Structure formats: C-alpha cells, structure tokens
Amino acid sequence: MSEEMRTFGYLCPKCGKTVMAARSVFALEASNAEIECACGDSALRVEFDGENYRLYVPCGLCGQTHTAVCGPERVLRNATALGCAKTRQFCAFIGPEGTVEKNLRELTILAEKERRRDGEDPEAFLDSVIMYEVLSELKEIAARKDGITCGCGSIQYGMEIRRSAVDLVCRRCGAKLRVPAATDRDLDDLCCHMRLVIPGGTRTERN
C-alpha cells in the first residue's frame, strides 16, 4: 500500500512563484518539516509539539510571515487553507495535490491584483488590463475537464507571470507554453481555445 502524502503550497513573497511540495503523513507525525522555495529566500515551516502543529507561513499577499496553530486532523487529514489577516484572503494550502494546485493558481491571480491595487510595480505589465483578462481566461480554461494538460501526460503545472506573457510550466517534465498577454489580439486568440496543451519536452510558444 502506498504511503499517504500531504501536499503543502504557498506563494513566495520574494520571487512571486508558487511553491508546492509533498510530505508523508508518517514523516509529519514523527518530525518537523520545511518546504523551501527554489529561490532560497522563503520557506514554509511545520513544527509538531506532540499535540498540535505550528506553521510559519510566508505570505505572497502581504509579504509577512504568518503563524498558525492547527490540530493533527487539519494537517494530516482534511484540506486546509491558511489565511492572511491583513488581506483576509487564503495564502497557503494543505491537502491533496490537485486541490492545492488549483488553489495556488487562483492565489497567483489574486496576488497580482493585490499588487496593482496597492500601486506596486506600475510598469509590471505592458498592459495590465489585458494581463488580468488573460489570467481570468486561463482560470476558466483550467476549470474545464483536461482544460490545461501537457504532452507528457501530466495535468500538474505552474504559472510564471511575465511583463507581457504568462508561461505555463509542466511540473513533471518542465516544458513551457508561453501565452502572450500584451494586446487585444492576444486575448482574442486565447478566448478561441477551449483547451491548452503544453508541448511536452519542448519550450515552444503557443501557435
């Protein structure tokens, strides 16, 4: 019988990328855990005192680190969302991989909207209106059955948001699909697609 796993996910407040990693229930019951961003500047830490779990959560919405105390049932069994007190939004997730992946995609979109609302990075996007429309359309496509997949067979992916495009990155093989997000034509082109397929094993832009 395969070992039961729990997936943790958050948005790095330093580099802005989603961070997701799985730990076994056995390991979580036996010791502390740390889920670190590849940039090395943030990490979600889990400490167990024998009764409850204390989590230190880097927040991609407000930039601070939040502390949460959860019972074993929330960490080891149920799907759990941890909140940011400043924005009153969820900023980290624990649960099955697919559930965490979906919530992280929505968190990425929310974080970009929060930054713009707060007046940060005025030159972040070539056209912020088009970018947000593209992100919303990608969210709708992702909500469809097999809406976004990779040629390698994986349905797990991350998003990297750039100044004039969004890169969909397969978590299994690392292939990328670049979705332009700078002009009305880019948005119209994306709206014509019911599904998107990342070209597995290559780094190619969508035609």
Report on the architecture of this protein.
- By secondary structure, this protein is an alpha+beta fold.
- It has two domains: 5-95, no CATH class; 125-205, no CATH class.
- 27% of the residues lie in helices and 35% in strands.
- The strands form four sheets. Strands 2-1-8-7 form a four-stranded antiparallel sheet. A four-stranded antiparallel sheet has the order 3-4-5-6.
- β3 and β4 form a beta hairpin.
- α3 (97-117) runs antiparallel to α4 and α4 runs parallel beside α5 (184-191).
- The chain is globular, with a radius of gyration of 18 Å.
- The protein starts with a strand and ends with a strand.
Main beta sheet: 4 strands, antiparallel
- Broad shape: globular
| Unreliable runs | 202-207
Rounded to the nearest angstrom, the distance between the terminal CA atoms is 43 Å
Give the number of helices: 5
Total domain count: 2
What is the percent of helical residues? 25-40%
Radius of gyration over alpha carbons? Answer: 18 Å
Q: Can you list the strand order of the major beta sheet?
A: 2-1-8-7
Roughly what fraction of the amino acids lie in strands?
35-45%
Mean pLDDT: 86
Number of strands: 14
Q: What string gives the helices and strands in order?
A: EEHEEEEHEEHHEEEEHEE
